[in-house]
Amino acid sequence: MPKKSFVTSLPDKAGAFLQASRIVAKHQGNIIRVSYNKAVDLHMLFLEVEAAEESLCKIEQSLADIGYIHSGLVETRVIQIAVKIPDQPGAVLPVLEVLNRSNINISYLNSCAEGEPCQYFRLGLLIEDPRIIKTLLDEISGIYPVDIVECDSSEENLDNTVFYIRLANEMKTLLNLNNAQTISFITESNRILQALQTGGENAGKVFAYIRRFAHFVSSYRGESYKTDIQTLSAGDDLTVYSIQPPCGSNTYVLKTPTELVLIDTGYAAYAQESLKELQQLFPDWNTLSKRLLITHADVDHCGLLASLEDVRIIVNRKSCESFQRQIEGLPDDREKTELHLGYSRISQIISGYTPPDITKLEVLDTGTPEEHENLLRIGTVKIGNYEFTVYEGSGGHLRGEMVYACAMAGLVFTGDLLVNIGGFSKERAEFNSLAPFLMKSVNVDSAKATAMRKQVIALIEEISRISNKPCVVCGGHGPLSVMRDGMLINL
């Protein structure tokens, strides 16, 4: 059954939600998620409705007819002023008349007479047209002395009615979003807030983390995009390049005399920067044949799948199915819970992610069981003179997770099943702290992820014994490393 999220703007009066619910019921809709918190936003209600497509259209139109649909995001500014008004009856009326003529809403009003000849009225003004600010202030100052007060959204007196609009406008500018994307961003932010508040998290902290996420990714675009690159000779005619961006997954490039094989590609936000770097790193980029493998189908590992040309993309069946659900607008394998769904969707918006064209994907495996508890061999990939065994995990981090291992080369590509957290730079550590807070866990099933990590470590130790040298661990994030006494040590 189709689903649709509505961002509605309710009047602050009894029966407002009842009226919206009656409209949904009238058109045979089922409300599957509702979120309203007067302490965070006085008017905004988030509704997710399940109904037939025709019914969803009728519900949307009916909500719009009564003025409930938040169809546009007005560029609202909040100005705080302190007006010195004589402490006498009716003295505030001229100021209110000015605001009324300019159609200005007051977000809060605070004043207290303390036995002085004058008192300061502190007003929060919601101004939709910034062009009138100067005229408005000039008119009020012609009546009474006015001071401009810095706007502080953390102040208890500030009416949070405008919070979502301010967040939306900030993200719209920062990420260059259209209106539909902006509405989706605040809807999914609310989804995260609703889930985390159930566990006792503070709304201000939740939104601070979301803002940090968006600003962090955006701040490294263009000339600010700097990566760390490690190079490793893995044997005759095989060189491994580990490209480590400020945020998002590593990109690995395995170079042979005739081919480049990429494993994972980071965020789509850095597609232009990444391609430019690859072309500089490999002057023969345009002439060599190229293949692309992934360790799993998370957004931060698959950003370039939709934009790289003349590259064979090889995936397993489960990852391919997840991409197909993304294309159809259905929850993918990361989006099984409200927290993971909200985080995944804002990740897609923040990074500009587009799912790959399914028709261009080559599926590696057939007959792989849907459920299995072990690191399961599902195929092989030949890279130059080296054969890599492809293993599929049980889905602890994400359904369809894969590991690539070659005893001959002494290499294991572990994805996010084993990550060199201890090798993170300060900025990478900061960024990688955001997802665990916003999702509570980066794993779909933490118990399975722990079991898989132990099996991956056992595989690394086995390869080390076979090759009689430390196996090089190429994790989804962080620098190259080797295992010593059960610990990852930077290479």
TrEMBL record:
SUPFAM superfamilies: ACT-like, Metallo-hydrolase/oxidoreductase. Pfam families: Lactamase_B (PF00753). It comes from the Bacteria. Residues 248-477 form the Metallo-beta-lactamase domain. This is Glyoxylase, beta-lactamase superfamily II.
